[in-house]
Amino acid sequence: MKPGATGIKRVIDAAGYSVQGLKAAWINEAAFRQELVLLVVLTVVTFFLPVTKFEQLAMVASMFLVVIVELINSAIEAAVDRIGSEHHELSGRAKDIGSAAVFVSMCFVAITWLVILL
To answer: Which sites bind substrate (predicted)?
Structure first.
């Protein structure tokens, strides 16, 4: 175990690091900005749809999943880019798999919304 803060101080520090990560994603990742704006807009839209609260929750949760996966994908891309700029098969594979995860999460949104609205 690495030495560091414990208890509430650790929780406060972790929250600060999370805020830094969100700021970095907003500044450096266009896809994150687009998906976050879409999350906000479509969340508002759900309040005007003829759906139950549980269905609304599922619709919004599916969109949150896209944002979460995009954050993970962005972290993978940043780590790979930090390692080096030269092309390497494994680096490309890591980035492609991260991108595929975002795509699958978007497919999940589409399926969720279609099943609920149709």
So the answer is: 10, 31-35, 70, 99
Tell me if 24 is assigned to some domain: no
pLDDT, residue 1, reads: 58
Known binding-site residues for ATP equal 10, 17, 29, 77, 86-88, 95-96
Q: What CATH number corresponds to the domain at position 75? A: 1.10.287.3610
Q: Give the tens place of pLDDT for each residue, 23-63.
A: 999 999 999 999 999 999 999 999 999 999 999 999 999 99
Catalytic residue among 62, 69, 70, 80: 70
Q: Residue 66: give the domain boundaries.
A: 30-117
Binding site, residues?
10, 17, 29, 31-35, 70, 77, 86-88, 95-96, 99
70 catalytic per annotation: yes
Please give the tally of structural domains in the chain.
1
The HSE-up count of residue 49 (CA atoms within 13 Å, CB side) is 19
Residue 2 has pLDDT above 70, yes or no: no
Q: What global pTM score does this model have?
A: 0.90
